[in-house]
Amino acid sequence: MRIGIYPGSFDPITFGHLDIIRRAAKLADRIIVGVAAHSGKSALFSVDERIKLLNTALEQGDFPKDCEIIVEGFDTLLIDLMQKHKAQMVVRGVRQYSDFEYEAQMSALNAKLSDYDIETIFLAANAEYQSIASRFIKQVAELGGDVSPFVPKHVVEALGNIQGINSTKL
Q1: Looking at 2, 26, 38, 41, which residue is catalytic?
Q2: What would the DSSP string read from start to end of 3-43?
Q3: Where is pLDDT greater, at 6 or 135?
Q4: Active-site residue 39, yes or no?
Q5: For residue 126, pLDDT beyond 70
């Protein structure tokens, strides 16, 4: 069985993330979407909220039926999550060269930390999603901008329910 892990903060989930999940599902029998509890970023949503938002997006979306997609939070090293699921590959989406540079360094570090072969699969973002980054979505939402072109409707609603987000324009 081909098992891949797609790790990230997913804070919030975007159409770009969903596109990577959809495309990765064509490459594996099972994809674990790993929601990182300790990503080094200040989270807007809790891990449980991000898992719920992801599961809702997966239920509403059109994803390959021959791949099992599981969403799971984790607060360990990525290598530990991979060993837990006996995963062989890490899936990473890259929007631009700086993303690739960072992800290539992480891939090399993971290979050094692991005692078994890990393949990192880099999926280039589709052109329509290259400008989407969760940190930008949060900034636009905080300033009252329209984020609906970038995230599913239930995420727009969730953003509007957060204190400090200017929901009058969402």
Answers
A1: 41
A2: EEEEEE--TT--HHHHHHHHHHTTT-SEEEEEEES--SS--
A3: 6
A4: no
A5: yes
Domain boundaries, the chain: 3-128
Task: Answer yes or no: pTM beyond 0.90.
Answer: no
- Is there a catalytic annotation at residue 17? yes
Class of domain 3-128: alpha beta
Q: Which residue in the list 9, 50, 107, 134 is annotated as catalytic?
A: 134
Nearest to 5 by CA among 125, 126, 106, 154: 106
CB 142 within 8 A of CB 162: no
Indicate if 134 belongs to the active site: yes
Structure confidence by residue, pLDDT tens digits, 82-97:
999 999 999 998 776 6
- Partnered with residue 35 across adjacent β-strands are 8, 73
pLDDT of residue 163 exceeding 70, the answer is: no
Q: How far apart are CA 22 and CA 46, in angstroms?
A: 24
| Bridge partners of residue 91, in order along the sequence | 121
DSSP category for residue 125: P
